Amino acid sequence: MTTALIGILTVSDRASRGEYADGGGPAIRGFLAEVLTSPWQAREQIVPDDIEAIAAAIRGMAEAGCCLVVTTGGTGPAPRDVTPEATEQVCTKILPGFGELMRQVSLKHVPTAILSRQTAGVCGTALVVNLPGRPKSIRECLDAVFPAIPYCVDLIHTGNPTPPRLETDPDRLVAFRPK
Description:
Largest sheet: 6 strands, mixed
Strand content: 15-25%
Distance between the termini: 20 Å
Number of domains: 1
Order of helices and strands: EHHEHEHEHEEHH
Strand order of the largest sheet: 2-1-3-6-5-4
CATH architecture: 3-Layer(aba) Sandwich
Structural class: alpha/beta
CATH topology: Molybdenum Cofactor Biosythetic Enzyme, Chain A
């Protein structure tokens, strides 16, 4: 089985300057280590809240062969929160259902979830998923959307003779694939 390359992109002005420790990237890595049983390798990067830097990082991860790029941070309404705009800039297809489900799940925990602008899309042959910045919210959102991610990656790689295959631990999270 081929080792899947997964991009983990933290978007934060302060973390990119080293002013505080990134909590989002490690939360994503921990979730993936807990859920995935197939071989995978992370490609991690921290960038400031800058639309061009975010877009370049997503594009670079996709071009490097990442089948999945998971971002954290920059999804709120503040002026510097531009991750969804960068994602939309580099994606040829937007998958709004991801954001809809993440907001629905998050609303069970905090009323401010309606302020979140997470989205997802396809950049080259990578699925890009925007997550919030808080580790607790990252886990809640990934628990909600990850069951659809392996099949989405399969669909994006239709026709690829050696597609990446993301397998999950069914005791932790069951990925949906039609029979």
